[in-house]
Amino acid sequence: QVQLVESGGGLVQAGGSLRLSCAASRSIFSFNAMAWYRQAPGKQRELVAGITSGGSTNYADSVKGRFTISRDNAKNTVYLQMNSLKPEDTAVYYCNAGYFGYGSGYWGQGTQVTVSS
Fold it and tell me: Per residue in 10-22, pLDDT tens?
């Protein structure tokens, strides 16, 4: 078992930046895939960014060049740096830790990100 706690969400104007953090209750070293998902009202949850234990990353086309995912195994934390935010980035952002790929395993409770135009 592991608890994931997201933080760093909030209200920001378009063009601004936020940094989300996902703190795990124990080591994340064993998780092959750490990821950030988001879910906007009335829409399905979607993968925003993921990072493997080897450091490989992938991003949704909509955030490429604007968002950066990173993991600090020593601090048991995964980050999502979000720059040049757009109103369409408004959603609840969830952290995910999986042994068998993105979307498996454990989920955090989510943090709200609201981007005003």
Answer: 999 999 999 999 9
